[in-house]
Amino acid sequence: DWFEIALRETGLPPNPAILAELRREVAQEEKDSARIIDLLSADVAIAIALIRSANDRFAPAERTGETIHDALAMLGLESIINALNSRHLDWAFGHSSLERFWDRSARNARLSAWIAERVPGRPLPPSQAYTFGLLRNIGIPLLMAPFPEYRHVLARANQDAGEFIAIEDDSLGLNHAVIGAELLQHWLEDPQFCLAVRRHHD
């Protein structure tokens, strides 16, 4: 199953609440496409899996997907719904310890798009701003598994936003902005996007 493989390869746990809601929506006889798209666009792991899958299916000369909205258009909603019906996704329901990360990522995405829509001339498309807001902290869950102490580091960093990166660097020798940017360099074609993730605390 292409979606299950892509989701596993991200190394990120999807939000089980969003997956459960997606399962409920795609099981309806009359599907609410707008609601399904909203849910697909609200989770970091799902967004990355869809962007990667879209770019794998299309040669760069044909089209490159840089945002979750590009990926949805390239893959087609029917193909995604069929993948969501797979029972192979049951493994993804075992995670429940990243609620703050999932909630903040979705809120950052909505706020980023809202701001981009209101900037005169719209120099940054709202869809790109949304994807940036969703993915900018992607390094946080990536640091959880190899560094059990990271939860305590994160709690301290959250108390001092101005020193967030310095606290991570001093404690671990690396930080979530650098890790996230380096990972995204393998998945996205836009170096400016990755640079923005790397420097989003500057």
Could you give the topology of this structure?
Elements: H1 2-10, H2 16-26, H3 33-40, H4 44-57, H5 68-75, H6 77-84, H7 99-118, H8 126-135, H9 139-144, H10 150-158, H11 164-172, H12 176-185, H13 191-198
Helix pairs in contact: 1-4, 2-3, 4-5, 7-8, 10-11, 12-13
Descriptive report:
- The protein is mainly α and 202 residues long.
- 64% of the residues lie in helices and 0% in strands.
- The chain has helices spanning 2-10, 16-26, 33-40, 44-57, 68-75, 77-84, 99-118, 126-135, 139-144, 150-158, 164-172, 176-185, 191-198.
- The longest helix has 20 residues, at 99-118.
- The N and C termini lie far apart (40 Å).
- The mean pLDDT is 87.
Largest sheet: none
Query: Which oligomerization state do the chains in this entry correspond to?
Result: single chain
- Beta-strand residue percentage: under 5%
Q: Estimate the helix proportion, in percent.
A: 55-70%
Q: How would you state the average pLDDT, rounded?
A: 87
N- and C-termini, Cα separation:
40 Å
Stretches where pLDDT is under 50 for at least 5 consecutive residues are none
Keywords:
202 residues, mainly alpha, 64% helix
Briefly, what is this?
With 202 residues, the chain is mostly helical.
